[in-house]
Structures are given as C-alpha cells and as structure tokens.
Amino acid sequence: MKSFIFSGVIAIWATGAMAHSPLDGTTPANEAIVSKMPTEVLMDFKGDIRLIRVAITHASTRSMDMDLGEQTAFTQEFKLPMHDMGQGTYEVEWRGLGADGHALNGTFRFIVE
C-alpha cells in the first residue's frame, strides 16, 4: 500500500514539474567565453513564458534592468538588447510567469574577453 501511495505522489509531482517552462538555451550560452560583446541576448524557453524582469550584472558592478521593450506577451523566445560594459563576467537574472501560472526564475552567465 505504501508503494502505491508513493507512486501516486511521484506521478502527481512529475506532472506538475513538466507543466513549467524552464529556460532551454541562451545565446551566448551559459558559461560561454566570447571574444566580443554581443549586441543582444537570446533566451529560448521550453514553453510559453512572460518575462517580468531581466537584470544584468557585470563583474562586481550593481545590477541593471534590461529593456524588455514590447516583449510582454507569452512566448518561447526573447531577444534583449545588451549594453556594452566592457570585458569581464556578465550574469543575467530573469524572472517570469509561465503560461500555467507558475512563477519562474533563473540565471545564466557568460564572459567577454
């Protein structure tokens, strides 16, 4: 009986986890080392999401919000303009709302040499 209940709990949890829309890939890729500053950051999600906030931090400077522009609809792909802050490590922190109503967030980073 315990294994039956446990199996049911796992099945319900797995179904809920699959409903989210995690970040599938970025350009530049997470942990990439690039030779020149990209003019934009591309974010690709596994499902529809609405970005609420995207902030970028360069090296040890303070965080700066990125311009989301007209990108307010639920979609899977976003292109965000970049501001050149020189060589070093850039960390992008994002927050959004999945089409299923769940709050989502994450980070990725890349290095400009």
Notes on the protein architecture:
Residues 6-19 have low confidence and may be disordered. The protein is of the alpha+beta class and 113 residues long. Strands 1, 2, 3, 4, 5, 6 and 7 form a 7-stranded mixed beta sheet that branches. The longest helix has 17 residues, at 2-18. Helix content is 15%, strand content 50%. The protein has one helix at residues 2-18, and strands at residues 23-27, 32-34, 40-58, 64-65, 75-81, 88-98, 103-112. It has one domain: Immunoglobulin-like (Sandwich).
Summarize the main sheet. 7 strands, mixed
Percentage of residues in DSSP E strands = over 45%
- The radius of gyration over CA amounts to 17 Å
CATH class: Mainly Beta
Q: Please provide the ordered H/E string of secondary-structure elements.
A: HEEEEEEE
Q: Treating each run of at least 4 consecutive H or I residues as one helix, how many helices?
A: 1
Helix and strand content put the structural class at alpha+beta
Q: What is the typical, i.e. mean, pLDDT?
A: 84
Molecular shape: elongated
CATH topology: Immunoglobulin-like
What's the architecture, going by CATH? Sandwich
Low-confidence stretches: 6-19
**How many separate domains?**
1
Residues in helices, as a percent range: 10-25%
Give the number of DSSP strands.
7
